[in-house]
Structure formats: C-alpha cells, structure tokens
Rab-GAP TBC domain-containing protein (Adineta steineri), 324 residues
Amino acid sequence: MHSELKHKQYHHGHRQIWKNIKDLLKSCFGFRSNNNRLFNKDGSLIDRNHLQTNISNHKQSYKQRQQTWPYLLNIYSPSMTNYDKKIYQNQAQIRYNKLKRVWQERISRGDQFYLVLADKILRDVHRTDRHIKFIKKKKQILFNIMMTYSVYHPYPCYSQGMSDMLTPIVYVFIDESLSYFAYCSLMTRYMNLLFDQDQIEINHRLYLFNLLFHSIDNELWKKIYFNQKEEEEKNLFVYRWLLLDCKREFYRFDDILRVLELIWINSVYSLTITNYNQSLFTIFVCISILQEDRMKILSYSNEEDLHKYFYSSLSSKSRHRSTK
C-alpha cells in the first residue's frame, strides 16, 4: 500500500517536470543566444543566478563556454576579476606540473603500480571519442590528466568511463592545467560516488529511473522490460546512460556539450542539491531519449529487435540522429 501511494505521488509530481525537460532538450539544439551581458568591466561575474539562467535558456557558443564553464564547474568564484583569473591560471599551472612530475618520475624508475595504472588509462584514452578530430590530437593531455587525477584521488579507483567525462572539459578549456582542476571539481562534487565500487549511488539512480519511467510511460516501460526477468538484465541498457549522464547517447559533440551543461547546472552548479535532485535531470534526459523513439520501440515485435536497438552501434547512431 505504501509503495503504491509513493508510486502515485511520483506519477503526479513528475509528469509535468519531465515534459518541461523534454521541451528544454528540444529547444536547446540549434538556438543561439543573444549577447546577454554576464560580466562587469573588470571581468567579475555580475550575477550567479543570471549566468545559470543564461546557460539554461540559450545554447552557448564555443567562446561563451570558455567563459562560462569555469564558473559552471566551480573553478572561478564570481568575484574574480580578469587579473585574479590570470593569477589563478599561473598558480594552477605551477601546482599541476608539480603533481604531474611525481608520477612521471615513478614511471621512469619502473614503479610497477604506476606502470599498470598507466597502461590501463592509456588503453581507455585511445578508445574515448576517437571519432572527434580535436580529441584525437589531445590524447597525451587526456592521459596526463587522468594519470594525475587517479594518483591523487585513489578513491574510487580508476575505472572505465572516467575518461569519457574528461573529453568535453579538455575540448572547452584546452589548457591542460585548467582542464585538470575543472575535472577534479566535476568528479569530487558530483560524479565520484557514481564510480564507487559499492554502487550505492548508481543503484539509487537506477531505482529512481525505473520508478519514474514506469510512472510516466507505463506502456513503453512494459514493452522494454516485460520479458527481462533478471533485475541486472533490466537495468543493463540504461546503466551506461545514468553513469555517464547520457554522454555517449548523442553523436554530435556540440549536442553532448549542450546536454552536459544543462545537467551540470542542475547538479554541480547548485550549492543546495540533494542526491535525489542530483539524479533527476539525467533521469529525465534518459526518458526523453526513449520517448523520442517511442513509436519505433513499440513497433518491435520481438526481444531481439529491442536488443539491437539498445546495444548495436548502428542503432545507437540512428538514435543519436533522432534527438537532434
């Protein structure tokens, strides 16, 4: 009885929220913002809430992201002037280079722990976003940052998928040291728990996803899950979506940047969020993706077709195109 009541509350409270998320995702592709003023003459941020609203309502250009993402990922404070930012950048480079030299020296001495870690990271880095020309040229930077992060942040230990969240940051920030500190901020404030071996946080996301998806679209939920008896099998297709904030579900890199910045505004950027709210936006993105292909999914006559849709690279690319 209690679970039924809880289910109805989710159903009533989140259907409109999900609709708003879907409308927001649709509106964000291809819409350029006007030159709304965000900064004072000295380079300090005029208003934190205005920045959040600006990013939420308008698609950012590449140059705009280079200005706004340092705030979005909490490496610049609103009061910092252009002069303060230059000081920060210089100090960040000095500090980062010191951190990097430690593991580079250990590798040069043949330390087995660092060699094994380097091999693991290098293999993942070469696989990550290899269809993006810019990223293909930045493999050394990606490797350096992931090694430095993994050495100084051993919990959770490095695992596959972490490098996925680094490529958008390097693409926008370009600078290696700034990218490192932006990545540290993203992971420590928001994503570390998702990669924890106890899997408490990712299981929490999976639970919320199933609860909300079942409530919002029961017919589609049944179509996907009806023949999947095991809980692990039920959640396998959406596990990657929830772990990586749907980063691999969009083919155009600009779309990836847009979806991530919307998610981060509703998670990393907020100072008052709970774990519950932290997960919601990503969950609604997942549901929106499924809703985009609703008729296609419902038309599948057997489980094999569903499996191809969720797991084959060909159907994945088709799904990417349908979200533009």
